[in-house]
Write a structure and sequence with these properties.
Layout: E1 16-18, E2 21-23, E3 30-32, H1 33-40, E4 60-62, E5 66-67, E6 74-75, E7 80-81, E8 85-86, E9 93-97, E10 101-105, E11 110-112
Antiparallel strand pairs: 1-2, 2-3, 4-7, 4-11, 5-6, 8-9, 9-10
Organism: Phytopseudomonas punonensis
GO molecular function: hydrolase activity
Family: Belongs to the YjdM family.
Length: 113
Amino acid sequence: MSTLPPCPACNSEYTYEDGTQLVCPECAHEWSATASEAASDDAKVIKDSVGNVLQDGDTITVIKDLKVKGSSLVVKVGTKVKGIRLVDGDHDIDCKIDGIGAMKLKSEFVRKV
């Protein structure tokens, strides 16, 4: 049984190694073996302040008072947020906070419940 990944062009399972390259005999596509390893690790893992892995739909708690930019509102310590959504970017949590509305938070300021 082969442990090589299938061809990314035609999805053929008959790939083989040729030096540092992987080759597909059916469509003649060639690609780097290291690129295929990096592609399998594409999923970015987002962790909270204590190292727990976060997922869409989780409930989190804010661990620090956070000022809301452009207003006088503050998200207080201990505020629970239900049904988060993970997004790409610096602020990687998209959520709705009761009394404030839609916000984006950084994962370093929350803890999974």
